[in-house]
Write a structure and sequence with these properties.
This protein is an alpha+beta fold. The protein has one domain. It is built from two helices and two strands, in the order E-E-H-H. It has helices spanning 14-35, 45-65; strands at 4-7, 10-13. It has a two-stranded antiparallel ribbon with strand order 1-2. The chain is elongated.
Length: 66
């Protein structure tokens, strides 16, 4: 798999694209969780949101590079 993807003759690292994709997915999941008021079941909402983003980014990165 390529480590860089050419975009308009500039090499973009694939991890940057994975970061952007996981951020978009995170925003959608976070909005869904806020709509069902999931924060009241979590001890520390900011830590939960950060962990959710790390899990998404790591999972997409492992999926892409495996």
């Amino acid at each position: 798999m390529p480590r860089e993807i050419p975009v308009f003759d500039a090499l973009i690292p694939t991890l940057l694209l994975i970061l952007i994709g996981s951020a978009l997915i995170f925003v959608l999941i976070d909005q869904l969780l806020r709509d069902v008021d999931w924060d009241r079941f979590v001890w520390h909402p900011a830590l939960f949101r950060f962990a959710l983003f790390v899990i998404l980014f790591s999972g997409l990165g492992l999926w892409w590079y495996s």
